[in-house]
Hints:
Elements: H1 2-56, E1 64-71, E2 76-79, E3 84-87, E4 90-91, H2 103-114, E5 118-122, E6 134-140, E7 143-144, H3 145-151, E8 156-157, H4 167-179, H5 184-187, H6 189-194, H7 208-211, H8 230-239
Parallel strand pairs: 3-6
Antiparallel strand pairs: 1-2, 1-5, 2-3, 4-8, 5-6, 6-7
Amino acid sequence: MRTRNLFFLFSILLNVVLIFILVARVRNPIIKEISDEQNVDFAQNSTVEKSGEVIGEEIETKEEQAIVAKVIDGDTIVLENGKTLRYIGIDTPEVSQGTECFADESTEKNKELVLGKEVRLEKDVSETDRYGRLLRYVYVANTFINEILVYEGYATAATYPPDVKYSQLFKEAEKDARENSKGLWGKCEESKEGASEVPEVLKTGGEAANTSGNWNCSTNTYNCTDFTTQSEAQNVFVTCGGRTNDVHRLDSDKDGRVCESLP
């Protein structure tokens, strides 16, 4: 009798152990599945959050803004912070050392366009010229000041590498102004003469300076964009009489050295 009771008790304990093992096996996959689902959800949420940060990120494009405090001439201004700024890619008649034809008109037009106004400044390659003047393209709202001065005949295109981003635009604007006799093209004889076709000798490129003195020294025919090197431009300047006969206006700062931006 005692043996039967022991066997019965042992059977119960064995059944309890088996049930416990069975329950444990069934429960572990469920817990693991729940844990895996939570990990997946967390990973997905992390991805969404990260993706949201990238998509929502705004890249700020900082634009230079300034107020024009003074207009020196048709292509040079002074900003409210005291810095002098020279317009890139254009040239207007000089008002210093003898007022050139249409210089006053170009200066007044520049005042009309920018004086006292907020301007947006765009840099090309160079920060400043050798005189420390800022070199910039200038905008008032949607008006491109450099271009409009050329297009309306208050300035000519003047390309000085490496700042050539809009050189073709300025050349096309000048062509339109010249063909329609706008501004200085209708008033200044030297500008009309300077618009004549470039002599064939110049079209030979770098060899032109070494061929002979066959240059046109009587009318304004060349600008710095017509030469490949500074020495070539200097040769023409000297051949035509230097400072005493700078008919081509190559020495804009009157220091005897022309087209200083050329290599």
